[in-house]
Specification:
The complex is a heterodimer of chains A (152) and B (103). Chain A is mainly alpha-helical and 152 residues long. Helices cover 58% and strands 8% of the residues of chain A. The longest helix of chain A has 11 residues. Chain B is 63% helix and 0% strand. Classes of the chains: A mainly alpha (152), B mainly alpha (103). At the A-B interface, helix 1, helix 6, strand 4, helix 7 and helix 9 of A face helix 4 and helix 5 of B.
Chain lengths: 152, 103
C-alpha cells in the first residue's frame, strides 16, 4: 500500500477494518512518509500505533526506491502480493500500463462488501466516510458497484 | 528574497489593492499572497489532472503528504482518479480468489 491510500483510509476511519480483513504491507519509505514526516498529524499517530500493534506490516527490504510508489511496486514485483493499493492517478497509470492489479480506496470497500467482510449498509457508510478524501467519480462508481449497478 | 520587476495589467493591480485593503497589508505582501494562492491552485490543478503525484505537490507546498491532502481538499480537490480507474481497479482484482487473506 502506498502513502496516499493509507492516509485516506486512516482519515476515513477504515484502516483498522481493512487491516483486519487483509494483510496490509507498506514499504519502509511509506512508514517514514506517513509518520515521521508528519508528526503533528493525528493520522500519523494512528498509523504509528497500528504498526506498533502489528496491524500494518512494514517491509524493511531495501528496494533502492526513492519514492513510496516505486517501493510499493517493487515490493509487489518481488512476489507474494495480490495487488498494489493506491489512489494516485499518475501511479495508477503506470500500474495499468504494467498490468499490475491495483486497489483504489473505494474498491477496497467494495471488495470487503462482496467478500462478506462488511455488510452492505456498513459499506455504504464507509464510502460516505471516504467521500471527502476520494474523487467524486471514484465514489459514484463504488456506490454503483455495491448497489449492484456494476457486476463483476 | 529576490527582487523582481513586473508589469501588471490594471485589473491585476486592482486585485492587489483589493486584497491589500481587505487584509490591511502593504502592496508587496498582497502580491506575494496572491502569487502563493495562485501557485497553490496551479499545483492542485496539476494534481487533479494526474500530472503531479501527491508527493510532487507536497514537496512544492513544503507540507507533509497528510497536510497536502487537506490543503487540496480545501481547494476542492478530493482525489484525481476517475470512474474508469475505479472500474479497472475492480476488474483487476476480480481474478483474486473470493476468500480474502486473513491474518
Amino acid at each position: 500500500m502506498d502513502a496516499d491510500c493509507l492516509i485516506k483510509l486512516t482519515k476515513a476511519g477504515l484502516k483498522e477494518q481493512v487491516c483486519e480483513a487483509w494483510k496490509v504491507v507498506i514499504p519502509a519509505i511509506v512508514r517514514r512518509e506517513t509518520t515521521e514526516q508528519a508528526p503533528r498529524m493525528p493520522d500519523a499517530a494512528r498509523i504509528k500505533q497500528n504498526i506498533a500493534d502489528g496491524r500494518i506490516a512494514v517491509n524493511e527490504t531495501r528496494v533502492g526506491a526513492a519514492k513510496g510508489e516505486e517501493a510499493a511496486l517493487r515490493l509487489y514485483q518481488a512476489g507474494g502480493f495480490d495487488a498494489v493499493a493506491s489512489d494516485d492517478a499518475r501511479f495508477i497509470r503506470q500500474l495499468r500500463g504494467l498490468g499490475v492489479p491495483y486497489a483504489v480506496p473505494a474498491v477496497i470497500v467494495v471488495r470487503l462488501c462482496r467478500d462478506g467482510s462488511m455488510a452492505m449498509d456498513r459499506a455504504l457508510e464507509a464510502l460516505a466516510s471516504l467521500r471527502p478524501h476520494i474523487s467524486p467519480d471514484q465514489h459514484a462508481a463504488a456506490v454503483l458497484m455495491i448497489s449492484g449497478g456494476i457486476k463483476s | 528574497m529576490t527582487t523582481k520587476t513586473l508589469r501588471l495589467s490594471d485589473n491585476l493591480l486592482d486585485a492587489v489593492h483589493e486584497l491589500g485593503h481587505a487584509e490591511q497589508v502593504e502592496e508587496a505582501t498582497a502580491m506575494r499572497k496572491l502569487l502563493r494562492m495562485g501557485y497553490g491552485l496551479f499545483l492542485a490543478e496539476q494534481y487533479r489532472a494526474g500530472r503531479l503525484t501527491l508527493r510532487d505537490v507536497a514537496r512544492r507546498m513544503e507540507l507533509s503528504l497528510s497536510e497536502t491532502l487537506e490543503a487540496l481538499q480545501r481547494l476542492g480537490i478530493t482525489g484525481n482518479t476517475g470512474a474508469d480507474d475505479t472500474l479497472v481497479s475492480w476488474l483487476s482484482l476480480a481474478p483474486i480468489p473470493a476468500t480474502p487473506k486473513r491474518k
